Structures are given as structure tokens and as C-alpha cells.
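pasting for the record
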Amino acid sequence: MSAQNSAGIQTLLDAERDAQKIVQKDRTKKVKDARNEAQKEIEEYKKKKDSDFKKYESEHASNIKNAEDAASKDAEKQLREIKETADKTGAKVVAELLEAVIDVNPEAR
């Protein structure tokens, strides 16, 4: 009877070992599946955010372009005004500078 009990116990131990292997494989598979699912969700989220950013960028790109154009026109206008002022008063300023340098009036202090 002892041999029969021993064989029965061994059979139960083998069955328990097999069950542990099956449970471990199942756990490993569930972890892999969860990891893959999380990676898919991350990729989907990233694609959505990239899409949202590109949409935002395209909506606001025209505003940036308009601001750049306005700044460029303003700068050109200011340069034109400076050049016009220089053309109008440049000769007078040079003449006054030359007169101040050439006509020295010594004064006692």
C-alpha cells in the first residue's frame, strides 16, 4: 500500500508542477498582452496629440505670417522716413558741422 500511496503522491506533485507551469505561462502572457495594449494606447495618444498640434499650428501659422508681414512693412516705413529726413536735412547738418569746425571763436572762461 505504501508504494501505491507514494505513486499517488508523486502523481499529485507532478500535477501541481504542471499547474504551476500553466499558471506562470498564463501570467506571462497576460503581462505581455497588457504591455502591448499599453504601447498601443501610447501610440494612439501620441498620434492624436501630434494631429492636434499640427491642426493648432496650421490655424495659427497665418497669424504669425500676418504679424511678420506687418512688422516688415513697419520697419520699411521707418527706414524710408529716416532716409527722407537724412536727405532733407543732411546737407544742412554737414554745413553746420563744417562751420563749427572751421569758424573757431575762442572764448575766455
